[in-house]
Amino acid sequence: MRIDPYQDAPRLPEGDRVDPRELVGGGPEPVEIEIGPGRGWFLVERLAADPAVRLIGLEIRRKWATIVDRRLAARGLGARARVFAEDVRSAFARFPDACASVVFLHFPDPWWKKRHQKRLVLTPELALEVARILVPGGLFFIQTDVLERADAYESVVGLSGRFAPEGPSSRVDENPFSARSPRERRAMADGLPIVRLLFRSLPR
Ligand SMILES: C[S@@+](CC[C@H](N)C(=O)[O-])C[C@H]1O[C@@H](n2cnc3c(N)ncnc32)[C@H](O)[C@@H]1O
């Protein structure tokens, strides 16, 4: 029988309610959350860029949740950041209102064919959940190199009625968080256009 080397991947504590702030040191200050960190280098760079930041990653693949969570601990960052092997949709449903200051979604949906539509991460339901867990005025940052996806994300977030573009438009030229995701670095190296969307959540 083949044993899954990642069967003990880090998981959120059990229970209907989980407060992500308690998983990275406690305290009332909201945390930052990355959906689908993959190989996880954005987390490491973001923590280095701002010593006050506390971060939670939610990564559906047990392998990468395990590797990245261990890497954070090995670098002495485990008290400020954790990665859990979770599907963002079920994880967010357990988080309290207004527990996060920023939600990052970098290059979430590499599939662009119609039949992959049902696997999309950013659905109208998820946009509402992001708005709920953000503090009023919190930021939602999305990046993609699939241009059609950018239009779809803009419309899903806009139609939620819970966000406003951070500037004159939601499209921003640069990533303002002093950290880059692995796919972002690859897209830049390959000269691919990247669309970056920045929204601010509206007061409830
Ligand atoms: C294309 S990769 C991008 C990885 C990383 N964000 C980057 O920019 O380099 C998308 C990531 O999202 C993760 N993912 C997909 N659906 C997810 C879900 N429902 N919940 C959490 N993570 C998810 C995938 O496992 C994968 O690691």
Explained architecture:
The chain is of the alpha/beta class and 204 residues long. It is 29% helix and 21% strand. It has six helices and eight strands, in the order βαβαβαβαβαββαβ. The protein has helices at residues 41-49, 62-74, 88-94, 124-133, 147-159, 182-189, and strands spanning 31-35, 55-58, 81-84, 100-106, 134-144, 163-165, 171-172, 195-201. Strands 1, 2, 3, 4, 5, 6, 7 and 8 form an eight-stranded mixed sheet that branches. The longest helix has 13 residues, at 62-74. The N and C termini lie far apart (52 Å). The mean pLDDT is 95. The structure holds S-adenosylmethionine. Residues 35-38, 58-61, 64, 87-89, 106-108, 110, 121, 181-184 line the site of S-adenosylmethionine.
Keywords:
204 residues; alpha/beta; binds S-adenosylmethionine
In short:
This protein has helices spanning about 40-50, 60-75, 90-95, 125-135, 145-160, 180-190; strands at about 30-35, 55-60, 80-85, 100-105, 135-145, 165, 170, 195-200. The protein is an alpha/beta fold. The chain binds S-adenosylmethionine.
Give a topology summary.
Elements: E1 31-35, H1 41-49, E2 55-58, H2 62-74, E3 81-84, H3 88-94, E4 100-106, H4 124-133, E5 134-144, H5 147-159, E6 163-165, E7 171-172, H6 182-189, E8 195-201
Parallel strand pairs: 1-2, 1-4, 2-3, 4-5
Antiparallel strand pairs: 5-8, 6-8, 7-8
The structure holds S-adenosylmethionine.
S-adenosylmethionine (SAM) is lined by residues 35-38, 58-61, 64, 87-89, 106-108, 110, 121, 181-184.
